[in-house]
Design brief:
- The complex is a heterodimer of chains A (about 280) and B (about 500).
- By secondary structure, chain A is α/β, with parallel strands linked by helices.
- Chain A has 12 helices and 11 strands.
- With about 500 residues, chain B is an alpha+beta fold.
- In chain B, strand 1 and strand 2 form a beta hairpin.
- In chain B, the strands form 3 sheets. In chain B, strands 2-1-5-4-3 form a 5-stranded antiparallel β-sheet. Chain B has a 5-stranded mixed β-sheet with strand order 7-9-10-12-11.
- The chains are: A alpha/beta (about 280), B alpha+beta (about 500).
- At the A-B interface, strand 7 of A face helix 3 of B.
């Protein structure tokens, strides 16, 4: 149960007389979909959003996708940057706010990576090995590889000798580069970013297989809340990010072109994979 | 043998060596104690650091290990191994009870869910920390979960090479400082002993001076102030003074003896000359009275001639022995025969029977006449003195191929051992007193000629001295120095 704050009480009292703009903070959930632990990025994003929306902004981070998704569905967040897979799982309860555009399109791939010196030439060579997934609710870090195996009549638990989750795409790259795992499923966008930002780490891995393109992890809100002033302010701020110097700095740190509007059709392929997993799982 | 060799090492070397040996012993013991303390301290430090790092880690990863979470376990171990300070963990791994590695900081060496190398398996009793200095590491083990049913074991290999390097540095420092200290003390010991032995060196020089007959430097100031050396030096100075006085006394005695001998010889010669003189005067008187008779004249002249020849021989013999410089004339048979005239007085006085068997070949022999004559004369005089009244004194001389043999025999009581010693091994200095001077002189002269002396004392009494010397030896030039040292025993 939520208690009213002193400010809310005062605002309500004032609202009886004159219309005052609400100063509730904008709560944006973040997952490890992009490079985590980057304080500079978080601070830049927060400053940009606060400047553009005129609202105090709170960036909320959690270790797993599931935690953020639960917070979003529970109404504890105004919007969240989630993965495509949770989005399609709860599509009937969520609306799209914006989708990042990367290299000219709101699309990305899932990579199957192996250690740089691995003799593997295809997925079949990874049979009986140890595999690192990013997150059970990640499209690129779990669903894509799982669906690929399901279509071949395999299951991750039996195809691989052992699988484990690292709860972070960067951790998957670390696990594979250090040979803790013989292969890993990773976000193609994150891997490409690591190649630029942390070449020493990325050099320890080789891309064994690139998936087809999927809709980029979106920023979503609860269904019916897209028109709320805070969410609209957020959407506006995101769409105009490339027009602002501070926004361009944040985009440069993220390695993105900007944010664009999107329709649920963008996630049809992920939805198909999710259905396959739900049906066979 | 080793001990006697050790005893021959000079003090100035032995003392520094002993000091060095003692220092090496003390240094080794001290170094061992220091290193032992250092090792204990280092191990306690490692144990403490391991307790802090591993106990905390064990508690934090226990939930992840219980869920068999490979990534979280690896992440924690990797952070532990990557730490740059405190405990330096080379490798850390979590071992499941079934003998499989859940995760290791070095997955290449310890693949996940595979058994580790046999030496990494945990066997009871659990040893929390084991040091392996040969490999420069220590292995720490922690149990995760309950005592009875552990969920896993956390094993960490701690790098102890830094500690070993520190130990080596300490050892090097100890060795170098001990070596320097030892060297310094040994040098100091050498200098000190050398300084302490300076009086002894001075004493040795003084002894050498005394031996050479020179005046020794006996100033006490050179000895320092050590009472032991002062006493020793004072006593040596007293002794050296006594030796010098004794030598002077001996020299004076020898001179007196020489004069006495000269007087005796002169008396003997006067007697020898006086005897025929009386007869010759009688013959002169006869000539004066009956000189007109040819047979008397011839007989008187013959007696006169014999008497004069006898006197001439006596004088010539005396001249040969007592001229100032001795020509190294070769020995001839007649040179020995002349000696009969020189001992004539001794022989006549005791009415001795002189058996003279001089069988030397005519002509010169390759030997100097002087020392041979003097040796034989001294021994003959000695034999005359030793013989009883009317006793027999015998001389036999002959040559064998390359050798000269002369035997002097008497019927005396036999040569005593001191006399034998003087003949056989005459020292540099004459014997004390005047007794034995003749034998000592004969022994020295004969030894210088390179000859040998054999002494025979038959049971029936008497002495036979056999002289033997090789013919053709190089002449000895300094025998003239002793020409005045005649003496009868």
């Amino acid at each position: 149960m939520e208690a009213f704050t002193r400010r809310e009480v005062l605002a309500a009292a004032a609202g009886l007389g004159a219309q005052m703009p609400a100063r509730e903070p904008l709560r944006l959930g973040l997952t490890p979909v992009f490079l985590d632990n980057d304080l500079l990025l978080l601070r830049g994003l927060q400053h940009y959003l606060e400047a553009q929306t005129g609202l105090p902004c709170r960036l909320i981070k959690r270790r797993s996708y599931q935690e953020i998704t639960v917070l979003l569905l529970a109404g504890r967040l105004d919007a969240a940057w989630i993965c495509g897979y949770p989005y399609v799982q709860f599509q009937d309860r969520l609306d799209l706010v914006a989708v990042p555009s990367w290299r000219g399109a709101p699309l990305y791939r899932s990579y199957l990576i192996v250690p740089a010196d691995s003799p593997a030439r295809g997925l079949e060579d990874l049979r009986g090995t140890i595999h690192a997934f990013s997150d059970p609710d990640s499209n690129s870090g779990y669903l894509v590889t799982t669906a690929l195996l399901l279509r071949r009549g395999e299951r991750p638990g039996s195809f691989f000798r052992h699988v484990f989750f690292t709860y972070g795409h960067r951790n998957v790259v670390r696990a594979v580069a250090r040979r803790l795992a013989d292969g890993g499923s990773v976000d193609g966008y994150v891997f490409e970013m690591l190649r630029e930002r942390e070449p020493d780490l990325a050099r320890g891995c080789r891309v064994l297989r690139r998936s087809r393109r999927f809709g980029f992890p979106p920023i979503a809100c609860r269904r019916g809340e897209a028109q709320r002033p805070a969410v609209r302010a957020l959407a506006r701020a995101l769409f105009t990010m490339a027009d602002d110097a501070g926004g361009r700095e944040v985009l440069a740190m993220l390695g993105l072109d900007g944010f664009v509007p999107a329709t649920p059709a963008l996630y049809a392929a992920i939805a198909a994979n999710a259905r396959l997993l739900a049906e066979t799982g | 043998m080793g001990r006697s060799w050790l005893r021959t090492i000079p003090l100035r070397v032995k003392v520094p060596l002993l000091v060095a040996a003692l220092m090496v012993g003390v240094g080794t013991l001290a170094s061992w104690l220091v290193l032992d303390a250092l090792i204990r301290t280092q191990r306690a430090q490692v144990r403490e650091l391991a307790a802090v790092a591993l106990d905390g880690l064990a508690a934090s990863i226990a939930p992840a290990v219980a869920r068999r979470d490979v990534w979280e376990t690896f992440d924690a171990l990797d952070h532990l191994a990557a730490r740059g300070e405190g405990l330096r963990v080379r490798t850390a791994l979590v071992l499941l009870p079934e003998g499989m590695v859940l995760a290791a900081s070095d997955p290449v060496r310890f693949p996940t869910l595979r058994p580790p190398p046999a030496d990494w398996l945990v066997e009871p009793p659990l040893e929390p920390l084991r040091f392996d200095d040969a490999r420069g590491l220590a292995r720490a083990v922690r149990r995760l979960g309950g005592e009875d049913e552990p969920t896993a074991f956390l094993i960490a290999e701690v790098d102890t090479r830094g500690y070993l390097a520190e130990r080596r540095r300490a050892l090097l420092l100890l060795v170098v400082s001990n070596a320097l200290l030892t060297l310094l003390l040994a040098l100091g010991g050498y200098a000190l002993v050398r300084r302490m032995l300076v009086p002894l060196d001075h004493l040795a020089r003084a002894v050498e001076s005394v031996r050479r007959g020179e005046e020794p430097d006996l100033q006490p100031a050179r000895v320092g102030r050590a009472p032991e050396f002062l006493t020793l030096f004072r006593r040596f100075a007293d002794m050296a003074r006594a030796v010098r006085e004794r030598e002077l006394l001996l020299r004076r005695l020898a001179e007196e003896e020489r004069l006495a001998l000269l007087g005796r010889l002169a008396r003997g010669m006067a007697h020898e000359i006086n005897n025929p003189l009386a007869g010759m005067l009688t013959v002169v008187d006869t000539l004066r009275r009956h000189g007109d008779r040819p047979e008397v004249r011839e007989q008187a002249l013959a007696i006169l001639e014999r008497g004069l020849l006898g006197i001439r021989n006596l004088v010539r013999a005396a001249l040969v022995d007592y001229r100032e410089t001795v020509d190294d004339v070769p020995l001839e048979r007649e040179a020995l025969d002349d000696l009969q005239a020189l001992i004539g007085h001794e022989v006549g006085k005791k009415r001795l029977r002189l058996v003279w068997a001089n069988r030397l070949p005519p002509g010169p022999l390759p030997l100097p006449a002087g020392p041979v004559r003097q040796t034989v004369l001294n021994l003959l005089l000695n034999a005359c003195r030793a013989s009883p009244v009317e006793g027999r004194v015998e001389l036999m001389a002959r040559t064998e191929p390359g050798e000269l043999h002369i035997t002097i025999a008497d019927e005396g009581p036999g040569l005593p051992p001191e006399g034998r010693a003087l003949l056989h091994t005459p020292g540099e200095m004459p014997p004390g007193g005047t007794r034995g001077l003749g034998l000592w002189t004969a022994g020295r002269l004969w030894a210088r000629l390179g000859g040998a002396i054999e002494i025979e004392t038959p049971p029936e009494g008497g002495t036979a001295i056999h002289l033997r010397v090789a013919l053709g030896r190089e002449r000895c030039g300094d025998h003239g120095l002793l020409t005045t040292a005649h003496s009868a025993d």
